[in-house]
Amino acid sequence: MITNRITNAFATQFDTSDPLVVRSPGRVNIIGEHTDYNEGFVLPAAIDKAIYVAVTKRDDEKLHLHSVDFNQNYVVALTDIQPTDSWATYILGVADQLIKRGHSIGGFNLALDGDVPIGAGLSSSAAVECATVFALNELFALSIDKMEMVRIAQKAEHTFAGVMCGIMDQFASMFGKKDYVIKLDCRSLEYEYVPLKLQGYKVVLLNTNVKHSLSSSEYNTRRQECEQGVAWVKEHHPDVKSLRDVTLEMLNQHVATKDQIVYRRCKYVVKENERLLKGCEELQQGNIKALGERMFQTHEGLSKDYEVSCKELDILVEAVKDNADVLGARMMGGGFGGCTINLVKEEAIEALIEKLAKVYKEATGLELTAYVAQIENGTETVTQKEYSHV
Length: 390
Ligand code: GLA
Fold this sequence. Notes:
Helix content: 40-55%
Bound molecules: alpha-D-galactopyranose
Largest sheet: 6 strands, mixed
């Protein structure tokens, strides 16, 4: 359906047909939050909500961009690309990276559409970046491999959106595989696909429908706090390169004495890496009850020690804590709004959503939106035509 909508919008806007259409999904993360930029582990998966881009080459050196959702256009010369505060910035950031890395691209038309809710912590921006880099790679026959495309997409987020994100979102969007989660080592970038077998439980996302404005500045601050902790440990252990190499004992000795906030941030990350490794084993052994309990612990850490949660997220996690149909729940992604991720017994989903919507509305005055996430493939071409050498 979105494929039809985007190709129709493309034809109307650009008066040319047969664009190359690429789909790139949003993501969930089962456990392992704020660990990626600390060279730890994450356990994400691509979902059935995705961003689509439709592209064709132009004869001039211009970018003509159109957002179906916003019904807006953005036009710029290739030589004049700058960050903007609109949806276009993620596309421009990718084009800028390609040019800076010496890839030869020309002008292009691009239409953008999709159904990943914006600001919900499902990585719509990473999905736009991955869709764009994948489409341009194909359109201009650049022969960039997937891992390099992930790095380009991540760098676009750093330079044009100003968020110093880790690699998880772009990686999950690009490398997702239907019905599998990806255990990614963010230091070596080695990864393993682990089947997501939930035995009658489903991944349910509960969207708070808030995104507090702190999210990107606080995100960057957390990164610096972690770096500060590493620097203090390093004075005594020169081999330490990141929180991946740090133990609780080291933190107690060298960080707790210096700054309690930095200590709590680092402690959360060190414990979260441990939780992920154990949680992943539990998933592989089919012990999803234990994995669920760890998700609750992760939330506790994110809320109390890492302090990236918010009232709305805490309310939603608290509301399911003693519910026998919910094995685990926690805030997901960067924080300060967006979704909680919940493992919920299939038969209980409908009633639970109904009940929570009421609780949430009473407590916050806000609407709750719920999605049952299916795990899907990563970035891929939707249309069959061979575009590379057109
Ligand atoms: C955001 C970032 C990711 C990751 C998560 C937190 O989604 O883009 O790189 O750091 O927050 O785990």
